[in-house]
Amino acid sequence: MRYDRIKLLLKEEFTRLSDAKIILLGLGGVGSFCLDCLYRSGVTNITIVDFDTYDKTNQNRQMWSELHENEIKVEALKQHYPEIEIINIRIDEQWVWDFDFDSYDLVLDAIDDTKAKLALAQKCYKKLISSFGSAKRLDPTKIKVDTIWNSYGDKFGSKIRYELRKRGFTKKYKVIFSSEEAVVKEKGSFMGVTASFGLTMCAQGIKEIREGKKSV
User: Fold this and answer.
1) How many domains does the chain have?
2) What does the pLDDT look like over 88-115, one tens digit per residue?
3) CATH number for the domain that contains residue 48
């Protein structure tokens, strides 16, 4: 059967996955692999949010992109994961403040917009797992999971921490980051790292669900 192998690992805890409700923001190189991992693991009550369409530049790192060139991402992904809910919209700061996250057990952030990430931290920190920069790197073994204030080695993450401090934000939430220094200045991407970020986010999300606690 579909989930027999993961049920052997999780046993009675598997029901927590099937009962969980998750919202995943951003379906790029990180988010698309996180989605695939969650779905194949038994989490199917997932809402995905993105505004973009697939183009050729996505095909080195984004799940299913080569099959759906010029198609809207969330609509294309619905074909592969039919049980999910989709929202085709640009995620910006105002959308985050306006959207109701209360019904979700976890909020998974795989977006690049700084102001939107800051708003997510302030609004959803109790159930947020956020991804920092996965581009410009080649070594997936340098990926780490820790609280926002224990993260390091990432200029994007440093900017987020700085801006949160300016806002007087002192709470904790989990982030996925890399301790590897950027290899290039340009935003080059290697699927070995971007996909590993997404799989790590999935694993951390499943851990939170299994333990029945918020992301702190």
Assistant:
1) 1
2) 999 999 999 999 999 999 999 999 999 9
3) 3.40.50.720
